[in-house]
Amino acid sequence: MRDENGKLDSKRGFLCGLGAGVAEAVFVVCPMETVKVKFIHDQTSANPKYRGFFHGVREIIRTQGLKGTYQGLTATVLKQGSNQAIRFYVMTSLRNWYKGDNPNKTINPLLTGLFGAVAGAASVFGNTPLDVIKTRMQGLEAHKYKSTMDCAVKIMKHEGPMAFYKGTVPRLGRVCMDVAIVFIIYEEVVKVLNKVWKTD
To answer: Which of 30, 117, 128, 156 is deepest in the core (most CB within 10 A)?
Structure first.
């Protein structure tokens, strides 16, 4: 995805993030998030059905089939795809801005962390509405919604536009730290690997 000079521009960073987000949504995030959300809702109900993780997964698959672990797939793909696309776009833009015309200019890990936190904040504000829809689509009351669009329309109609930003503040704190740490570790690992496999 890099150009002939080895530089990753913002548009390509966006596409890389989008591809990574869609892949993680389909193969990992959707089944794990669906099970997690169902467990949380079940454990807070008056009569919990699940007696532990494995029993819960077995019950979900027994009663709803494998598709029971993939509820809200469309919303999850939209959420994760936009999530990573925004993060990679912002991070790539900030890195390229800082490096300017010198692609070999090193970035201090603290600055990488700051850029990562900004990228995380941008992703929170950019896709919290999709996160809210995804969570509703995966919960125990998901049967109320015919589709992702139906869920969005019902939230808007019955709760208003601010309902799409429920949980923004706690998510902002967690995501900014999370993304900052991930990008710091990523950059430091890349530096080590470049030294180990450097070819002249």
So the answer is: 30
